[in-house]
């Protein structure tokens, strides 16, 4: 009976041990005691015994170390040294990578994330597995070989060893923004901007930034406190809201101009601008979106608030949106002393002060105000008539001098700082970096620079030591007894050649089964040229003795050689011949102005054609509108033009006798009331 009970107890303990090892086994062993030995105390005890020739027990008790540990230190010193020199305890011998190699993995993953092509957890484990074979690691676990990737235990331990790495959910980024933000576009903008500053000597209070933002009566709700573990909290809102355009204008002196609202209505209502900031302007448009005519009225608002003129010009920095690129806008700006500098396309998130530091807090304050109104008025919905009032309150809080000045400072606009963006900020553009398009496709400011605009020429090329010649090294690994799988190096044909791929040249090295004979090499590794000559490597440093279990790790192997960074194809069309307007002084760029005039003429011709077709379908003939009369200034004399085809004209020569009443003196009853004839 006792035997049976003991047997059942062993079975129970075995089952519990198995379940705990498979389901609840900790990834890191927890210490059961706080006893830890300082290695410096062990070294002090070792040196004390060597110096005083005392016993092991006496030296161990004096410095608080175990006697057996001190005895092991002396035995290790006798085995590896002269017996009187302290030899530290060797580190972990089962590590797959050295600390230097793990540092390269960390650097590679961070750079890949900065290029907007970060690696998921599964891809990191696969890359690490291939990199371990490339480094000829002797401690690759069997679980790595079965799954062809690193285990999750190693991944979590790796993340704990490097706390600067973290797993995050990335945000979406447009490929147009990644490609556009490069050194060439940034330098082009600062070239045009500084040219305008030097020419007109603008002060901070005469430098303005203008941009639009969409407002809706149904904004994203604020976070609320709710029970943990329950579904996502909901908030009562309208299913669909009405939108309008908000125009913000700020100056480099930290001041904000009263905003402009594009209201989606056809008729004006005084309640639209109720309780808004003094000087705010409302513009009606059926859709509520900005267009060329509305933008001219916006510039009129800026002209009135800034007092711009030909003698006192202002500088306006804006993006080259479709509604901004209008010939009427340019002509209005030229007449009223507004110098327009356009930003490069798709770079407003980096180069526009409003997007950098003002619009973010503005939307946050606006959501809070709308949420407070919804809590105080549960049965009411916010309408277009109330939205400008809330927007002005949020704009007053967000457009403060601190936020405005920080936005201008972060973009390098004021104070002027061309080097505000480090090289790491342009790492995303390396994926699609290519030579600059021909000059026929780009509208530049002034003559092109002599050094060219080829950003790929300035790309940092890897040194020759980081280039791996996979085809030349693969024959030496075919008969490797330490690699039974034969996959110590990845197949060079499976990886697409990246930017650091070297062109292998003929090599005179004679591969042997385990020994490589040094000899002259004529391989040309990429852009750098290696001087051919005999190898000066010390025998044993790069030679593997048959039967030996130690191999040297090539220091030039990097994770980038195993998994190159993504690189787009170089042969791509340049917009199918379409001209692309880069950053420039729009009001002084004659070529851009001519293009805008041609574009306006084509647009007008197309609209006339559409109206003519619509008139034919409806049966009502469509008449072309007469050409608009140019606006006359207030200083011009007002002249009345007489038409000779009028009914009062006469073919005969005009004489005073033809109209005798002109010289007749007025008499009584000349001017009689109509009632006298009735």
Automatic annotation (TrEMBL):
<dbReference type="InterPro" id="IPR050863">
    <property type="entry name" value="CenT-Element_Derived"/>
</dbReference>
<feature type="region of interest" description="Disordered">
    <location>
        <begin position="17"/>
        <end position="37"/>
    </location>
</feature>
<feature type="region of interest" description="Disordered">
    <location>
        <begin position="437"/>
        <end position="579"/>
    </location>
</feature>
<protein>
    <recommendedName>
        <fullName>DDE-1 domain-containing protein</fullName>
    </recommendedName>
</protein>
<dbReference type="InterPro" id="IPR036397">
    <property type="entry name" value="RNaseH_sf"/>
</dbReference>
<dbReference type="GO" id="GO:0003677">
    <property type="term" value="F:DNA binding"/>
</dbReference>
<feature type="compositionally biased region" description="Low complexity">
    <location>
        <begin position="492"/>
        <end position="559"/>
    </location>
</feature>
<feature type="domain" description="DDE-1">
    <location>
        <begin position="252"/>
        <end position="406"/>
    </location>
</feature>
<dbReference type="InterPro" id="IPR004875">
    <property type="entry name" value="DDE_SF_endonuclease_dom"/>
</dbReference>
<feature type="region of interest" description="Disordered">
    <location>
        <begin position="609"/>
        <end position="637"/>
    </location>
</feature>
<dbReference type="GO" id="GO:0005634">
    <property type="term" value="C:nucleus"/>
</dbReference>
<dbReference type="Pfam" id="PF03184">
    <property type="entry name" value="DDE_1"/>
</dbReference>
<feature type="compositionally biased region" description="Polar residues">
    <location>
        <begin position="17"/>
        <end position="35"/>
    </location>
</feature>
């Amino acid at each position: 009976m006792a035997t049976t009970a003991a047997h059942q107890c062993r079975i129970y303990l075995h089952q519990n041990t198995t379940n705990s090892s498979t389901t609840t086994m900790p990834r890191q062993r927890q210490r059961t005691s706080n006893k830890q030995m300082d290695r410096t105390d062990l070294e002090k005890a070792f040196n004390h015994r060597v110096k005083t020739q005392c016993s092991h027990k006496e030296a161990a008790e004096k410095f608080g170390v175990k006697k057996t540990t001190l005895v092991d230190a002396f035995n290790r010193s006798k085995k590896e040294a002269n017996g009187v020199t302290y030899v530290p305890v060797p580190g972990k011998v089962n590590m797959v990578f050295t600390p230097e190699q793990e540092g390269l993995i960390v650097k590679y993953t961070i750079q890949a994330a900065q290029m907007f092509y970060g690696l998921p957890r599964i891809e990191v484990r696969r890359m690490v597995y291939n990199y371990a074979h490339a480094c000829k690691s002797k401690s690759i676990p069997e679980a790595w070989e079965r799954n062809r990737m690193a285990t999750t235990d190693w991944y979590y331990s790796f993340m704990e060893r490097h706390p600067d790495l973290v797993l995050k959910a990335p945000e979406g980024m447009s490929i147009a923004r990644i490609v556009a933000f490069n050194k060439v576009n940034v330098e082009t903008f600062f070239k045009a901007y500084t040219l305008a500053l030097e020419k007109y000597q603008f002060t901070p209070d005469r430098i303005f930034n203008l941009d639009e933002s969409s407002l809706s009566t149904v904004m994203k709700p604020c976070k609320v406190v709710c029970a943990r573990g329950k579904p996502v909290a909901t908030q009562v809102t309208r299913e669909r809201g009405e939108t309008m355009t908000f125009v913000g204008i700020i100056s480099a002196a930290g001041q904000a101009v009263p905003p402009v609202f594009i209201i989606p209505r056809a008729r004006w209502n005084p309640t639209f601008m109720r309780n808004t900031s003094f000087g705010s302007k409302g513009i009606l448009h059926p859709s509520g979106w900005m267009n060329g005519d509305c933008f001219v009225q916006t510039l009129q608002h800026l002209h009135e608030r800034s007092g711009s003129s030909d003698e006192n010009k202002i500088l306006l920095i804006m993006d080259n949106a479709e509604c901004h690129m209008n010939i009427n806008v340019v002509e209005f700006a030229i007449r009223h002393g507004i110098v327009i500098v356009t930003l490069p396309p798709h770079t407003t998130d980096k180069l526009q002060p409003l997007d950098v530091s003002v619009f973010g807090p503005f939307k946050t304050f606006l959501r809070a105000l709308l949420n407070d109104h919804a809590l105080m008025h549960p049965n009411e919905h916010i309408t277009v008539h109330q939205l400008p009032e809330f927007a002005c309150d949020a704009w007053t809080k967000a457009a403060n001098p601190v936020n405005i000045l920080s936005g201008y400072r972060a973009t390098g606009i004021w104070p002027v700082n061309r080097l505000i963006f480090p090289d790491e900020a342009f790492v995303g553009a390396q994926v699609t970096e290519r030579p600059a398009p021909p000059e026929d496709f780009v509208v530049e400011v002034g003559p092109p620079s002599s050094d060219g605009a080829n950003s790929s020429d300035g790309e940092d090329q890897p040194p020759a030591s980081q280039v791996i010649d996979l085809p030349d090294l693969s024959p030496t690994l075919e008969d490797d007894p330490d690699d039974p799988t034969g996959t110590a190096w990845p197949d060079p044909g499976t990886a697409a050649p990246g930017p650091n791929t070297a062109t292998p040249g003929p090599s005179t090295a004679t591969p042997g089964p385990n020994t490589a004979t040094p000899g002259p090499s004529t391989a040309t590794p990429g852009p750098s040229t290696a001087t051919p000559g005999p190898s000066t490597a010390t025998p044993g440093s790069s030679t593997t003795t048959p039967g030996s279990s130690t191999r040297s790790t090539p220091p030039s192997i990097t994770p980038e050689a195993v998994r190159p960074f993504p690189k787009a194809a170089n042969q791509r069309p340049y917009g199918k011949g379409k001209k692309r307007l880069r950053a420039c002084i729009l009001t002084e760029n004659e070529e851009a102005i001519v293009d805008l005039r041609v574009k306006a003429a084509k647009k007008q011709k197309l609209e006339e054609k559409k109206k003519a077709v619509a008139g034919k379908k409806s049966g009502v003939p469509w008449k072309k509108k007469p050409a608009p009369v140019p606006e006359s200034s207030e200083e011009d004399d007002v002249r009345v033009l007489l038409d000779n085809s009028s009914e009062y004209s006469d073919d005969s020569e005009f004489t005073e006798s033809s109209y005798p009443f002109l010289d007749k003196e007025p008499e009584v009853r000349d001017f009689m009331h109509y009632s006298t004839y009735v």
